[in-house]
Amino acid sequence: MVRNILGILLMLITLFSPNVSVAAPGQMQDTSRRLYDRIMSEFKQRDYEAALAGFRLFIELHGRSALAANAQYWMGECQYRMGRYQDALNSFYNVVLSYPLSPKLAASTLKLGQTYAKLGDQDNARIMFGRVANQYPDSAEAEIARKAIDVVDGLSNADHSQSE
Known about the structure:
By secondary structure, this protein is mainly alpha-helical. Helices cover 79% and strands 0% of the residues.
């Protein structure tokens, strides 16, 4: 993990050293894409701690790039997979609030529902799943959300039956 973080930092130092001239917009886009891809490789290797640090750095350096919303989403995914559910909620909400035109909106809203479910907050989980099903009805996320609503409703019905 430390080796991976050092690799990312070394790449950044190389890319942004004072000896490098100011990059044209196309070059900057290439730079941000290379960094993003490098961080995604950490995520795919399940080094979530290194990926999380990388995505944070990416947003600091390239917060206005087309990949910033994706980086924010993947931060949440790292946190979710590490069991840091409260942090994951914040990251997924940041996608929804800060990047309203992002293609990651449906996925982020679905993850909000899944995260609430992990936290045992079935009411908010159902709200988020319902939002996905209503706002993105033809998406793959909507299909997952509809199934999750059935599960949440089943849990709610079981809770009511036990309390009677």
